[in-house]
Write the structure tokens for this entry.
Amino acid sequence: MSFLRPDGRRADALRPIAFEAGIAPYAAGSVLTRFGQTQVICAATIEPKVPTWMRQQGVPGGWVTAEYSMLPYSTLDRKPRDISRGKLDGRTVEIQRLIGRSLRAVLDLAKLGDNTLWIDCDVLQADGGTRTASITGAYLAARLAIQKLLDEKRLTENPLADSVAAVSVGLFEDRELLDLAYVEDKGAAVDFNVVMTGRGQFVEVQGTGEESTFSNDQLQSLLVLAQKGLKELAALQTAFLTKQLLKF
């Protein structure tokens, strides 16, 4: 009998993936991203100016920055808002920097003009993989926002050179699994988050042995598994955008 995970998936299967556009009407581009039970609103807003440090240093082009938040009711036990603690926690800072780096890896800032692209990722429901869902949805929101700039003639060419997506892989009960849900992520001996472009170039690989070490063979096998999932995610992104951009 083939191995089935707690949610009935095969070891190399993604969770059900879904994208819903227009979830935040006042944003230039927005997408509700679902990785199984994990749900994240990704919204892109265009600000017609660049950060002060860019102006002071005479840096040409635009900028991309991201903010990430888990809403208090996104987890089983209420998660206090960062503002109630008076500062961002380290995990929040790490994830929003990762989202920003991932978008900048596929975006030509010179072609963005004197604009800042803000990416806001708000987790509605967390069941593992919130950062990977955020990156995958953030690209879609950014692409929709940039299309709006192109249609309004505020940009003359698309600054996005490629797509970008992210997925988790790990070792859970001695098995290599793709796209970990919370119960798997919590119990994983080894956990990786992998970010890759649509053309198959790695942007970032975050990996750690939570309670174990891992061999070079296991590392390579997990990367291959991640690549499989990321190719599937890239295809889903393309299909979604093909449908959405025809509506513009």
Remarks:
- The helical segments are 52-57, 82-85, 90-104, 130-151, 182-187, 216-245.
- The chain has a mean pLDDT of 92.
- The chain is about 35% helix and 30% strand.
- The beta strands are 17-21, 29-35, 38-47, 63-70, 116-125, 164-172, 175-178, 190-197, 202-209.
